[in-house]
Each structure stands twice: as structure tokens, then as C-alpha cells.
Amino acid sequence: MGERPVVTPSAGITPVQQMLASGTGALLTSLFVTPLDVVKIRLQAQQTPFYQALAADSASWSGVIRPSKWKCFLYCNGLMDHIYVCQYGASCTSWYKTPTHFSGTLDAFVKITRNEGVRSLWSGLPPTLVMAVPATVIYFTCYDQLRDLLRYGMGFQGNYIPLVAGGLARLGAVSVISPLELVRTKMQSQKLTYSELRVCIRSSVAQDGWLSLWRGWGPTVLRDVPFSALYWFNYELVKAQLCDQYHVSQATFSISFTAGAISGAVAAIMTLPFDVVKTRRQIQLGEMETLGVPVKNPTSTWHIMRGIWAESGYRGLFAGFLPRVIKVAPACAVMISTYEFGKIFFQKMNLDREQQAC
């Protein structure tokens, strides 16, 4: 038996197969991470209910005082953030309001499963997958295509290739998904029907132009593009080092998982200030949309960052350090290892077909 030739990372598979691999990875990542975030939000809710939290946090953004009857919170399924708005605590999502007392994380898992059923751990997942999976498919497929184009099609060499390809792929994915993100925020916050939503979008475009559909694009790009560039740069570097260390030509599932976790943690730490700003901006836009307040000139990213620095110093810009790393690292590990496994599966399947055809 002769040795198989070393192939390029995406050789032997079609873009459709890349999409299937990334889509499967996105689905598994969401299934894995969603219960962790549901439990986290439920624990936070019992510690500081919205009506109490807002009494101590009534600072204004862009001159808009947030009334105590409103509050937003962010929910993440491992792939993207989603905003929920509670009005008087009455129209908030049902899985947030359930009045069960938990003594800790493990106790929360046990009680939610026992009292509310296993499905409650994946509350809110189906609607978010409608956007999360397509966004991830676009992102991962574009990254592989751009990396291979730069490295093998145009002949560029160097460790900067994953950095450039990762940044450009995320920029494209964010730009495509951004209008859908705004639409979803409007539907969640104002509970609009599809016909009402069409009228709302037409009115917004007529008043502020087509660019109004990309409101909030800037803060998202400032967080996601540097994160993706750093993530892919570190991932390819760590993966190559682990492959050399274990003397394998192609990354195994465990190597991809380890490299994904390490690179995800590093990227999460280095881009944390932008994540803090993006979270505040997301909540700001969500609450202003809900209140019907004009958002033509919302607070800029840099203004929010300066305000956080003046208020809390560097600690404020790195708030939520541990929860973000704990959430991002395993999500990245599951996503990339599943994606790489899927690509290897399709490569072997296509190779076997070719051999059978000969």
C-alpha cells in the first residue's frame, strides 16, 4: 500500500460539501452551547430580576433614559447573539420567567430537566438557527475558498493568509446577515407580523435610505472581523504545530478540537473590549427600537468605549472575561472539529468513488 499524497485543506470536496460540513458543525455547536446559556441566563435572572436591576442602572444612552418597565438581555447559541426584550416582565420569553430557584449550575440543569422537561434546555433555539446556520455556512465556506485561492491559486505564502482570509470571510458574512439581524430584532422587540414588518422596513428605507438596514453593522464588524482574523491565524498555527508534534499529515478530530479551543480562547480575550461595546450597542438599539425612539444617530462605538473607560477603567472593557472564554472556547472547538471531520469524511467518500470508477 502506497502513502496517500498530501492534499490541500479543501481539495477533493465541492463547495456544497463544505456547506454541508459547516452546516452540521453549526447545528451541533448550537445543540451543545444553548443549554449552557439558558442555564446561565436563568441563574442571572433569579439573582437580579430586571425590575430590580434597572433601578440601579438608569444611565442614559444618546439622551434616552431607559424606563424601568423595559429591559433587554442577550442570548447566545454558540454562533451568534440574540436579543430578547421584556416589557413589565409580562411579554418576556417564557423560559426566562419560570420561577424555579436554583442553588447552582448543576442544580439548574437537574431541576430544569426534571420540572420542565429536557426540551427547556434548548428553549429559543429553533428561531435562532434560521439565521445562525446560514451565517456560519457562508462564513466557513468563504474562509476555505479564500484561503485556498490566496495560497494555492495566487501563490501567496506566509502565516498571514489565514488572518486575511478569516477577516474577509467574516466581513462578508456579517454584511449579508446584518439586514436579517435588524429584521429579527424588530420582530422580537415589537412582536410584528410579517405584513407589519414589511410596512416597517419600507418606512425605514423611505426615511433613512437602504443603509438603514445595516444599522449596527459597525460594532459587529469591529468585534467579529478581528476575532475571526485572530482565530484562524492561531488555529492554523496551533494545528500545524500539533500535527508536527504527533507526526500526522492531516489533523485528527482531537487535534482540531484542541486547536479550536485554544485559538477561540485567545481571540475571545483579545477582542473582549469590542464584545463589551457591541453588547451595549445591541441592547441600546433593541431598547430604542422597542420604545419607538428614533435611532438615526445612535451612540458611536468609540463614544461607548470612552464612556466605559471613564466609568470603570480597563476593568470595564474586559468585563465578563471568564464567562466569554468559557462560552467561546468550547463553541469554537466543537464547531471547527466537526467541520474538519466533515471535510475529511467527504474527501474519503469522493476518493473511494473515484477508485471504484477506475
Question: What would you note in describing this structure?
Answer:
It is a single chain. The protein has a single domain (15-35, 126-357), classed as Mitochondrial carrier fold, CATH 1.50.40. The protein contains 13 helices and two strands, in the order ααββααααααααααα. The chain has helices at 15-47, 50-55, 94-97, 105-116, 125-153, 160-190, 194-208, 217-245, 253-270, 272-291, 301-312, 314-317, 321-357; strands at residues 70-76, 81-87. The protein is mainly alpha-helical and 358 residues long. It has a two-stranded antiparallel ribbon with strand order 1-2. The chain is globular. Helix 5 (125-153) packs antiparallel against helix 6 (160-190). The model is unreliable at 1-7 and 50-68 (pLDDT under 50). Helix content is 70%, strand content 4%. Keywords: 2Fe-2S, Heme biosynthesis, Iron, Iron-sulfur, Membrane, Metal-binding, Mitochondrion, Mitochondrion inner membrane, Repeat, Transmembrane, Transmembrane helix, Transport. GO terms for molecular function: 2 iron, 2 sulfur cluster binding; metal ion binding.
